[in-house]
Amino acid sequence: MAREMEIQIMGMxxxxxxxxxxxxxxxxxxxxxxxxxxxxxxxxxxxxxxFSKVALNSLVRxxxxxxxxxxxxxxxxxxxxxxxxxxxxxRELMMIAQAVSDAIDEDVLEGEMMIDxxxxxxxxxxxxxxxxxxSISRSKDFKRFLKEGSGLSEEGDDKDRExxxxxxxxxxxxxxxxxxxxxEDHVRLDKMGYTHEKKGDEDMGDDEIEELMKRRV
Length: 217
What we know:
By secondary structure, the chain is mostly helical. The chain has 2 domains: 23-42 and 153-216, no CATH class; 46-149, no CATH class. Helix content is 56%, strand content 7%. Strands 1-2 form a two-stranded antiparallel ribbon. It has a two-stranded antiparallel sheet with strand order 3-4. A hairpin with a 6-residue loop joins strand 3 and strand 4 (177-180). Helix 2 packs across helix 4 (87-105), helix 2 packs across helix 9 and helix 3 runs parallel beside helix 5 (123-138). The chain is globular and about 45 Å long. The protein starts with a helix and ends with a helix.
């Protein structure tokens, strides 16, 4: 009884054999390590300065107008001024930045629309960044680019949803990665240009992660 309670608390299926439980634990551990590494990377890229609450929330509102195009959840307002951007906010901004960069490469957007967090250190910089995001959110060409760039429907095909399994997705132009825990996550990341192929690190290949995730589900 105690063992069954422990299994339930850990979120595992009580019908799993020990090897399956071990595989699930390994998969979850690998995902946690990837998330920690990504958080550290985002923190290292985070703008620092003396940012007021008003300027931050102006940026958040502009960010949410663009992030809604990717089916991302609304980012909450800040309750106070900050000296450093939170890692999760940086992550969302960088995802948008990648999609904007791709659109610029395809001559969908002008180069001046590039989203660059480097050098952002003041409320004036936040205002400029917010203005850029506002312009991007109104771009019909960018909206069309996102829609045509994804072979997946926003609602999703029933068969795709039924066969969906959690998996890692990778930004082909950097070392960033994110876990697609749901079909909606997969659609959102696909719109941002993420793929299933990992660049660089050979210590943890796609086949290994995919096999572990299959055992997990």
